[in-house]
Amino acid sequence: MAYGLLFGGIFMEVVGSFFLKRANGFRNLIPTVMVLVGYFSSLVLVTLAMQHLPLGVTYAMWAGLGTFATVVLAVVVYRERLNLARISGLVAIVLGAILLNV
């Protein structure tokens, strides 16, 4: 249950981050609302997850896996480029999240 809340929080953080670009400095109403809903929902879900999971693990997974998913989404949707350094950073994020749960 706690990990479900955490992954829900990660998903909603990615939703908020994705719509930041489309909000265009908060000039576009619907994307701006999605940013607010995404980030607020994310904070609520992660707060609930932290009642049952260690702070360090929860925050590292939330930040790390949220970053990973946001970068992947940016590459797919916005055609942002990856180079070896960025790929190495993403691998390090995922390995760090795995090692924190061992």
Topology diagram in text:
Elements (H helix, E strand, L loop, with lengths): L1 H22 L5 H21 L5 H23 L6 H17 L2
Helix pairs in contact: 1-2, 1-3, 3-4
Structure explained in plain terms:
With 102 residues, the chain is mainly alpha-helical. It has one domain (2-100). It has four helices and no strands. The protein has helices spanning 2-23, 29-49, 55-77, 84-100. Helix 1 (2-23) crosses helix 3 and helix 3 (55-77) packs antiparallel against helix 4 (84-100). The longest helix has 23 residues, at 55-77. It is flat, with a radius of gyration of 14 Å.
* Helix count from the secondary structure assignment: 4
Q: On the 0-100 scale, what is the average pLDDT?
A: 94
* Rg calculated over all Cα atoms: 14 Å
Order of helices and strands: HHHH
Going by helix content, strand content and strand pairing, the class is mainly alpha
How many structural units, i.e. domains?
1
GO molecular function: transmembrane transporter activity
Keywords: Cell membrane, Membrane, Transmembrane, Transmembrane helix, Transport
Pfam family, one: Multi_Drug_Res
InterPro entries: EmrE-like (IPR037185), Small_drug/metabolite_transptr (IPR000390), Small_multidrug_res (IPR045324)
Main attributes of the structure:
single chain; 102 residues; mainly alpha
Quick synopsis:
By secondary structure, the chain is mainly α. The chain is 81% helix and 0% strand.
